[in-house]
Write a structure and sequence with these properties.
The complex is a heterodimer of chains A (317) and B (641). Chain A has 317 residues and is α/β, with parallel strands linked by helices. In chain A, 33% of the residues lie in helices and 18% in strands. Chain A has a nine-stranded mixed beta sheet with strand order 2-1-3-4-8-7-11-9-10, with helices on both faces. Classes of the chains: A alpha/beta (317), B alpha/beta (641).
């Protein structure tokens, strides 16, 4: 606007959102719960990306992780157990202008809502899906979850879980039209934030599994990974999650993995003795159902009336 | 030959139509109405033929009601007694909206399928059965025998059995009569009933153009129509005229599912989210083909639960959505409908009821979901429940439902059924209004001091913030919450929130009018009904009143809240009873000393009015014919003190 007098045009004062603008009610998760770290990373993401709170929606089902929307300051939909993904898909269907995040847990996503998980990945509607996976049911107090390790004791399996756990990364990679599959851990905030940022910028559904500590019911579950960072395999690639040197120095066990390579991604996911963090798979060209569902959004009222009139003509005798 | 039912024919009636295209050398008789059926194996085009013939009748100014005869299996074995596929067409001088009683004329492509119709009491003495005679010459002796035996049986039952060469005549024109004999039959029926063959030809053209067929197919089908017509003129000793009433009103012909779909478009609904389920799917098929022209989007979800979840997401984001289902789907959706009640999210649910419980009778009608709609959710989940009683109301109520859902911020269930869904009738063409369309999504700033559930203490009503509205951010929750949508476990808050959600129904009830009573305004008996049974009940009541009985009837369109003034209306009659298509114990057929189980509306009315409301209900897997209701009402009147 150089050269113009300032009273010639009015520009709305730019809004700048601070971290505090995204703080909702005080989190009631247990002290030391990994969910706190994910919440903080998400609030930082919203600030860094300057997402208007009124244009941002957090959707969840039921479980500890599903309390997430209450602790954000944005629109939220804290619905029913397992049903976050259909609701989020419905919100997306006719609202391309909104930023949509789903916070779900291993019981919510991989058990009661598993059918929706498969189909939401297939629909590939633009949103970030955060799977906060603590390998246990927390809110209902320590039952086996589909991701509980074989042999882990719980209230429902006091003699130990009888089956090998389901691996959410492996499962998601197996769904045709998956477009962004990443894994991170709650105790490495820079990697967590970098992963969420890449997920947010992805044109499609970004599925991020976050290994999440549950000090109350699974206190030492991830202790080996925490005490010896070399047990985590950091996936690196120019097209992957970009992390700075500080992370590279801590996570020394690294492997270059091209996220376009689905077969290699599946091979990494299959290795039971390795927990990889980073981007397993990305395909920006995957079909997007939200582009299909938003067709006709600009239809005017008179066009709507005319369309019905034309139909009535066809049925008129 | 003699007409099927002497009683329904009036040779001296005025207003008989003059002959039109084609010359008639045969004399004409006049009937006020006719019921015909075309029955066949699945896939022989009987429904197409019946719909086409029905449209011709409607075009000629007759009242019309068609009923599809649908086998439960997609393709039952040929010539099976249970596998009848076809259609009933009732056409009359006056407007009609039910299937009537017994058929006057039946065209059958084979004799075995008639047994399932006999089982449904569809025919009576004198019903004219026109049966394809090809089976008499079948190379399989078993088939020849079955055919001969069945015809003997039909004659013994008093039907007027006539064997006609449908297959043989059609084969003169087409190589495979399986495709084509239905059109020949339409031609024959046009001759029988003095229908304008040009109308039939126009409809054939429209039909095949819609199916993207070429001119050669249209010409061949026109030839079939003409051949059937010529054969009919030759064969029938007389023609039966069903005179029409003059009307200059533009009319449309459609079934209830198309009417619901058009209602959704008229309401400016942008999303229909569904999972395939009989008998609701045809509404979504239709929407899938045209919705985009009205800016709409038809979502096929992965399951019934996802379908309603997706719809709730749309509604939450400002675009009130429709989900359409049937009983089993309604059961699956229950939890999320409860969430819509709890979190006050507008939503339109159309339930095209079918026989139940469980998979039940997927293609057949029942009015069995009334109490499930009202009470089929844990805790108290007040919602609005409407029941259209005609196809026109299927259109209108869908528009109303969207408006009510938004104004009252709650789910609205519209109870249609398999009868309305598949029956075709004609009604005055509606003129779409701008005011019917949903308003644009409000994206203006929200007053931060107004909580998301700013309940008006009198009405329970409140405005809702929509994502995108600055200052309105709130977290919707299915947990108990206060007006700020803050999770709240305090007992006083829960009590108040329950009150506020419940009060909305009282608010709606206050603006409703008492239901209209037809027939006698006071007297021996009031018959209360709801949904698609209305027309048959009214017809039965008319017949009884003609004998001097003082009977009234009323049909409830609002089931939740109930329309007001029922106590006052009920008090004017010695007895009150409901007629419904759902299960109840007959008064003389339940274990002495046990509680009688009443039909669903009767339960509701007994609870709401404390009147000793009686009921008569049946679950025959088909609409209740007026004659069956008449008989039941007469029995109750006879037993009156």
């Amino acid at each position: 606007m150089y050269g113009l007098k300032t009273d010639w045009l009015e520009e709305p004062p730019p809004r700048y959102y601070t971290f505090e603008d995204f703080e909702g009610s005080l989190p009631r998760w247990c002290p030391g719960c990994g969910d706190h770290a994910v919440l903080t990373a998400t609030q930082r993401l919203c600030r860094d990306e300057q997402l208007p709170p009124e244009k941002t929606v957090f959707v969840s089902g039921i479980g500890c992780a599903a309390r997430f929307p209450h602790y954000m300051k944005a629109y939220g939909f804290h619905g029913l157990h397992g049903r976050a993904l259909p609701v989020a898909s419905g919100i997306r269907a006719r609202r391309p202008d909104l930023h949509i995040f789903v916070a779900t847990g291993d019981g919510d996503c991989c058990s009661i809502g598993a059918g929706h998980w498969l189909h939401a990945i297939h629909f590939n509607m633009k949103m970030v899906v955060m799977l906060l996976d603590n390998n246990v049911y927390g809110l209902t107090k320590a039952q086996t979850s589909p991701t509980s390790a074989k042999g882990s004791r719980s209230n429902t399996h006091p003699r130990g879980a009888p089956l090998e756990p389901l691996d959410p990364i492996q499962t998601t990679l197996g769904i045709r039209n998956a477009s962004f599959v990443a894994q991170t851990v709650d105790w490495n905030p820079p990697h967590l934030l970098a992963t969420l940022k890449a997920a947010h910028r992805h044109p499609g559904l970004a599925f991020v599994r976050i290994l999440q500590r549950c000090p109350h019911f699974r206190n030492d579950l991830f202790e080996p990974l925490q005490s010896d960072p070399s047990k985590l395999l950091l996936l690196t690639h120019p097209d992957g999650i970009q992390v700075d040197d500080s992370i590279q120095r801590v996570l020394t066990n690294q492997r270059e993995h091209d996220p376009a390579d689905l077969v290699a991604a599946q091979a990494i996911a299959e290795k039971e003795d390795t927990v990889a963090v980073g981007l397993f798979y990305r395909r920006d060209a995957a079909d997007r159902y939200d582009l299909y569902s938003a067709e006709g959004l600009a239809t005017s009222r008179s066009e709507k009336i005319a369309a019905l009139g034309a139909e009535l003509d066809r049925y008129q005798i | 030959m003699t007409p099927a039912k002497e009683s329904s024919v009036d040779a001296d009636a005025p207003h008989a139509q003059p002959p039109h295209s084609g010359s008639f050398d045969v004399p004409a008789k006049v009937a006020q109405e006719q019921i015909i059926e075309i029955v066949s194996d699945s896939g022989e085009g009987a429904q197409t033929a019946g719909q086409l013939f029905g449209t011709v009748c409607a075009k000629m100014g007759n009242g019309l009601w068609t009923v599809e005869i649908i086998p439960a299996e997609i393709e039952p074995p040929p010539r099976s007694q249970a596998g009848a596929s076809g259609i009933r067409v009732r056409f009359a001088t006056r407007p009609i909206s039910n299937m009537g009683d017994r058929a006057d004329l039946v065209v059958a492509f084979n004799e075995q399928v008639l047994y399932s119709r006999i089982d449904q009491d569809a025919f009576g003495p004198g019903t004219l059965l026109l049966i394809d005679n090809r089976w008499a010459k079948d190379e399989d002796a078993k088939i020849r025998d079955a055919y001969a035996k069945a015809l003997e049986d039909f004659c013994a039952r008093g039907y007027d059995v006539q064997e006609i060469p449908i297959h043989e005549e059609t084969r003169k024109l087409v190589e495979n009569p399986q495709r084509g004999k239905n059109m020949w039959v339409v031609g024959m029926l046009c001759a029988r009933y003095g229908r304008n063959l040009d109308f039939a030809k126009d409809e054939v053209r429209l039909l095949f153009e819609r199916r993207r067929k070429g001119e050669d197919v249209i010409v061949r089908n026109h030839q079939l129509l003409e051949a059937g017509y010529a054969w009919g003129l030759e064969y029938f000793d007389e023609r039966l005229q069903v005179p029409s009433q003059e009307s200059d009103q533009a009319m449309v012909v459609m079934n209830g599912n198309a009417a619901v779909a058009m209602g959704a478009m008229a309401a400016g609904i942008e999303v229909c989210s569904m999972y395939p389920i009989t008998p609701a799917t045809s509404a979504s098929h239709y929407l899938a083909s045209v919705f985009h022209r009205a800016g709409g989007f038809m979502h096929q979800a992965e399951d019934e639960i996802a379908a309603v979840g997706f719809a709730l997401g749309c509604s939450y984001a400002g675009k009130t959505a429709l989900t359409i289902t049937s009983g089993p789907g309604l059961a699956l959706k229950t939890e999320l409908i409860g969430l819509a009640v709890m979190a006050e999210i507008p939503l339109v649910i159309v339930d095209v009821q079918r026989g139940g419980p469980a998979t039940g009778l997927p293609t057949k009608v029942e009015q069995g979901d009334l109490l499930a709609s009202l009470y089929g959710a844990p805790s108290d989940a007040p919602k609005i429940v409407l029941a259209p009683s005609s196809i026109e109301e299927c259109f209108e109520f869908t528009i109303t439902a969207r408006k009510l859902a938004e104004s009252f911020r709650m789910p609205v269930i519209v109870l249609s059924d398999a009868n309305l869904a598949t029956a075709q009738t004609l009604f005055a063409r509606p003129e779409p209004h701008d005011e019917w369309l949903a308003p644009p999504v409000d994206q203006s700033p929200w007053n931060e001091n107004t909580p998301p559930y700013d309940w008006d203490a009198e009405t329970g009503l409140s405005q809702r913030p929509i994502p995108g509205q600055e200052g309105g951010a709130y977290v919707l929750t299915g947990l108990a919450h206060d007006e700020h949508s803050q999770v709240a476990y305090a007992s006083a808050i829960n009590q108040r929130a329950m009150e506020m959600r419940s009060r909305k129904l009282a608010t709606l009830e206050q603006i409703l009018k008492p239901p209209v009573v037809n027939g006698d305004a006071e007297g021996e008996l009031l018959v209360v009904c709801w949904g698609s049974t209305r027309s048959a009940v009214e017809e039965a009541v008319d017949r009884i009143r003609a004998d001097g009985h003082r009977v009234g009837t009323t049909c409830l369109r609002f089931l939740s809240p109930l329309e007001p003034g029922l106590d006052e209306i009920f008090a004017r009659y010695r007895r009150v009873m409901t007629v419904e298509i759902n299960y109840s114990d007959d008064p003389d057929n339940h274990r002495a000393g046990t509680s009688r189980r009443y039909s669903q509306l009767a339960w509701l009315l007994r609870a709401a009015t404390l009147v000793d409301v009686d009921c008569w209900s049946r679950v025959p897997g088909q609409p209740l014919p007026p004659g069956m209701i008449e008989e039941a009402l007469r029995a109750r009147l006879g037993g009156a003190d």
